[in-house]
Specification:
By secondary structure, the chain is mainly alpha-helical. It has six helices and no strands. It has one domain. The longest helix is centred in the N-terminal third of the chain and has 28 residues. The chain starts with a helix and ends in an 11-residue tail after the last helix.
């Protein structure tokens, strides 16, 4: 029983560490400080910067339903900025840990998209 709990906690912690390392690496690939992924709200501001979207979008994340729409649009811009397709955005939405890892450790390069 105790060994099972220790294994579960170890697995859970390793997933958290992998998620943090993945986002840290993505932030650095985009020319932003990696530590920014650790600070709540500031990490969203940096993600908006990577997506080349205005900072006021942060407030849209507090509005129900609108937050989902703006999150999807932000993740799509991040996918496109790294040369990925819109299908990659679907992966970021539904299997985020895996797809942030792919984005972090593959050979893709960040190119800021022009603001639409």
């Amino acid at each position: 029983m105790i060994i099972g709990i220790v294994i579960m906690i170890g697995l859970w912690l390793s997933i958290i560490v992998f998620a943090i390392l993945s986002q840290w690496k993505v932030f650095e690939k985009a020319g932003q400080p990696g530590w920014a992924c650790l600070i709540p709200f500031y990490n969203i501001i940096i993600l908006l910067k990577i997506a080349n979207k205005p900072t006021w979008w942060l407030f849209m994340f507090f509005i129900p339903i609108a937050n989902i729409v703006f999150l999807i649009m932000m993740l799509n811009r991040i996918s496109l900025s790294f040369g990925k397709s819109s299908g990659f955005t679907v992966g970021l939405i539904f299997l985020s840990i895996i797809f942030w890892g792919i984005l972090a450790f593959d050979k893709s390069e960040y190119k800021m998209l022009p603001n639409e």
